[in-house]
Amino acid sequence: MDAAALSGGFVNPAIDAARVFREVLQAMARPGRIAHIGASPPPGLSPAAASVLLTLADDTTPVHLAGACDSAAIRDYLRFHTGAPIAGREDAAFALGDWEALAPLAGYPLGSDEYPDRSATLIVELPALSAVGARLTGPGIRMHAQLSLPEIDPFTANARHFPRGLDFIFTSGDAIAALPRTTRVEAG
Amino acid sequence: MSAPNDQRERKHWMGLLARSRPGALAALWRDFPEGAAHAEEPGITWLRRPETGMVMVRGRAGAVGAPFNLGEMTVTRASLRLPCGAIGHACVQGRDHEKARLAALVDALMAGPLAARVDAAILQPLAAAEAQTRSARASQAAATQVAFFTMVRGE
């Protein structure tokens, strides 16, 4: 196991994980809000995405690595720090990658009518994250918000599955924003 | 990766460290002169600071039957890297963070040039103490064995 993949966990796991959890919670509660978090990531992963995985992934949450994120360094990092099993997209609780690698959104678990929470959360690595672009309205948003989403149609298609569907966390560097399935997305 | 022999030996000493009595490892470390040079905090890079948790210990009835959950056991695990690059892992019985730290240190030193010295000063005494405890317990139990002359013992 490469030594570089072993380092970079939380320095103070209890406090750092609580802080990151709080930020993810706020990002999901207020779609469009961009916050900043960061742990030391392995090569190929942004600090924000690494923090989210260290906080939320454990041995009960299979993680699907898509595209360039499916590297030995990131696999070792996840295995050492979280114990999360690596899975294909059909069994994933979390899926990590950039937008081109994660798309198309078919194949991820959407949850069931009895348990709509048993769906995948996609952690999308973007080159940049800013409050411009697609227009978001819905619960947790006062009037409207804007977020630089890579596309519009997949999110409107996702909303048709409600209460089932996917949720999204967007990361870029140390910035994080989230899009729950209750948010309505339109062109901005 | 390492040869099967090396892995078996590493399993053996990691088990010795994990099962060592509280304070025994610390006492042996205190008497180990080269230890002081490596025990300094600034020299160590923590990959995982000692953290305590539970593992479910499983057994098999009669060693060949269906597996079952024997019970939960408290363990403390730690991983560190020495300045020379050697990585040490530890997963020890109990809640003693210091024991986990020393076990990881010993595991890391066993990968380096000090391996023979560490083996003689720390691992051998631990193995001897464990063997002595085991034989004492066995002889105590043997003293209570009853031989029936009218029944055939099921062996």
Descriptive overview:
The complex is a heterodimer of chains A (188) and B (155). Chain A has 6 helices and 9 strands; from the N terminus they run ααβαβαβαβββαβββ. Chain A is of the alpha/beta class. In chain A, strand 3, helix 5 and strand 4 form a beta-alpha-beta unit. The mean pLDDT of chain A is 92. Chain B is of the alpha+beta class and 155 residues long. In chain B, 45% of the residues lie in helices and 25% in strands. A 3-stranded antiparallel beta sheet of chain B has the order 1-2-3. Chain B is elongated. The termini of chain B are far apart.
Based on Cα principal axes, name the global outline of chain A: globular
- What is the tally of beta strands of chain A? 9
Q: Radius of gyration of chain A, Cα only, in angstroms? A: 16 Å
- Strand coverage percent of chain B: 15-25%
H-E string of chain B: HHHEEEHH
Q: Which range best describes the helical content of chain A: under 10%, 10-25%, 25-40%, 40-55%, 55-70% or over 70%?
A: 25-40%
Which outline of chain B best applies? Answer: elongated
**Biggest β-sheet of chain B: count, sense, barrel?**
3 strands, antiparallel
Write down the Rg of chain B. Answer: 19 Å
Strand order of the largest sheet of chain A: 1-8-7-4-3-2
Got a strand count of chain B?
3
Most extensive interface: pair and counts?
A: A-B, 7 and 9 residues
Helix-and-strand structural type of chain B: alpha+beta
How many helices of chain B? The count is 5
Q: Order of strands side by side in the largest beta sheet of chain B?
A: 1-2-3
Q: Which structural class is indicated by helix and strand composition of chain A? A: alpha/beta
Q: Give average pLDDT of chain B, whole number.
A: 87
**What is the H/E string of chain A?**
HHEHEHEHEEEHEEE
Largest sheet of chain A: 6 strands, mixed
Number of helices of chain A: 6
Q: What distance separates the N and C termini of chain B? A: 43 Å
